[in-house]
Design a protein that fits this description.
This protein is mainly α. The protein is about 80% helix and about 0% strand.
């Protein structure tokens, strides 16, 4: 019998440390008791009550829409910023842009949220827009800090590209814009997808910035969960968290399965 190595022990300990709380949460989502810390028997009733809670369902739909719009806008802004950071000649303007883009990565969310709140208030006083804070202001706020993460991911990919492929396309008559969309974008598409998924997760999970930028008409899911936890944890939150874990696990499995199939297809010998 092979002895367990130190690395194997630490691996299993790390996995247990990460996933044991999730397993407990999934189990207690089927708790019949109203007290989340007391087991009262097996019952799936909280899932039924979850789908009858219109406030949570509206918050889920609002959060999904904001996360989709924010991640899409962040990919556009972050890709342009990454292109400037990697392709333009070194100058004070490029250095300033790089520092401004990466600032939200180290800026506390409370400061970011407060600054955006003051910006929206002063813009409403000066220009009359936005008239009220809602889903639009949350979308703008999430796009600003998500773009920083996309810029870092895409810029690392752009630095690894072979510039000779783009130069060959332009030598053959392609314009820089056409070269970017037909040559550069397909080569950095994995980084774009990674940045989009990261931005989607960050926007869906954000609480602090959304609390500053949102109004009465735009309550995100983290805000609803936080407010309900302050008044006492409801077993419906466990059911909601279980469904989120199930959805994320399913997406991760499908991504792994598709990547494995693509890898096997690439390794198959070509019949001459």
């Amino acid at each position: 019998m092979n002895k367990l190595s130190f690395s194997s022990v630490m691996l299993w300990f790390g996995l247990l440390f990460l996933y044991a709380p999730m397993l407990v949460l999934v189990i207690y989502s089927f708790n019949d008791s109203k007290l989340v810390t007391v087991w009262g028997g097996f019952s799936p009733k909280w899932y039924g009550e979850l789908f009858e809670d219109q406030q949570i369902l509206d918050a889920v739909w609002t959060s999904l829409r904001i996360a989709f719009y924010s991640s899409t806008m962040a990919v556009v802004i972050g890709t342009m910023a990454a292109f400037v950071m990697t392709r333009f000649k070194r100058s004070w303007a490029k250095l300033t842009l790089s520092n401004m883009i990466t600032a939200p990565l180290v800026m506390p969310e409370v400061i970011t949220g407060l600054s955006l709140l003051l910006l929206f208030v002063h813009m409403a006083d000066l220009f009359g827009w936005p008239k009220e804070r809602g889903m639009l202001t949350v979308w703008i706020a999430h796009s600003t800090f998500c773009a920083a993460y996309v810029a870092v991911v895409v810029s690392s990919r752009l630095r690894e590209l072979d510039r000779s492929i783009e130069e060959a396309a332009m030598d053959l008559g392609a314009t820089p814009l056409k070269t970017f969309f037909l040559i550069t974008v397909p080569m950095i598409s994995p980084a774009l997808m990674a940045g989009w998924l990261l931005s989607f997760s960050l926007s869906l999970d954000d609480l602090v910035i959304a609390s500053f930028a949102s109004g009465p008409g735009a309550t995100t899911l983290p805000m609803v969960v936080f407010s309900s936890v302050r008044m006492g944890v409801s077993p419906k939150i466990n059911a909601l968290a279980t469904l989120i874990i199930l959805s994320v696990s399913l997406i991760a499995f499908l991504s792994w399965y598709m990547a494995r199939r693509a890898e096997k297809r690439d390794r198959m010998p070509i019949n001459e």
